[in-house]
């Protein structure tokens, strides 16, 4: 069996998210990291391999993104992937979800995995839909929010979170499965794995290498148009009223502050 895990480079959780006023899109500058939701997908692939129900010949991490996204691939390899594939091309810049799903599907056609795993969402866009888009382009079944996964032969038995409980669904391979963060607890990479990640095979591909139709990707090939997004107005500094020993005076200041804003009945 061959498993492909889709991963993404996202702004680090400590970086404050803001809209780039020049593009109307999320500003992805600053420190970046591997999308934390994708670590659950890598762990799920590792547990399938270690579970022994099927023989996993290879786990491949796949991403699409700028040059810096290679660091997310190194992290994915340190967590257990055998090699990685990086689709990067200036023509892809500005791709929306549908265009990104199309481009990733073209890479997966080249890899021809038996199972595609990915995290339920990205930590920046949080659209939850890339798995379904990829599956549509590949013509394969797709499940989302999967929190338990058992494999036997060419069939998966998946338990997925639904709005009012859990669904158990059987699906034939090949398939595209988005896993929820409740499916497992991702392992920490060892120092040896971190040091060795850069030595693992990395294929860098451009759009022409996987027959991507340039008219279907990038800002021009995307159907989503960014509106007049603006950062919310800055909040004014709060008022701090300290009790300096005269409690009556302090209470008076609080009442006056509330009354000024018509917050008293």
Automatic annotation (TrEMBL):
<comment type="subunit">
    <text>Heterodimer of an alpha and a beta subunit.</text>
</comment>
<dbReference type="InterPro" id="IPR033948">
    <property type="entry name" value="ETF_beta_N"/>
</dbReference>
<dbReference type="InterPro" id="IPR012255">
    <property type="entry name" value="ETF_b"/>
</dbReference>
<protein>
    <recommendedName>
        <fullName>Electron transfer flavoprotein small subunit</fullName>
    </recommendedName>
</protein>
<dbReference type="InterPro" id="IPR014730">
    <property type="entry name" value="ETF_a/b_N"/>
</dbReference>
<feature type="domain" description="Electron transfer flavoprotein alpha/beta-subunit N-terminal">
    <location>
        <begin position="23"/>
        <end position="214"/>
    </location>
</feature>
<dbReference type="Pfam" id="PF01012">
    <property type="entry name" value="ETF"/>
</dbReference>
<comment type="function">
    <text>The electron transfer flavoprotein serves as a specific electron acceptor for other dehydrogenases. It transfers the electrons to the main respiratory chain via ETF-ubiquinone oxidoreductase (ETF dehydrogenase).</text>
</comment>
<dbReference type="InterPro" id="IPR014729">
    <property type="entry name" value="Rossmann-like_a/b/a_fold"/>
</dbReference>
<dbReference type="GO" id="GO:0009055">
    <property type="term" value="F:electron transfer activity"/>
</dbReference>
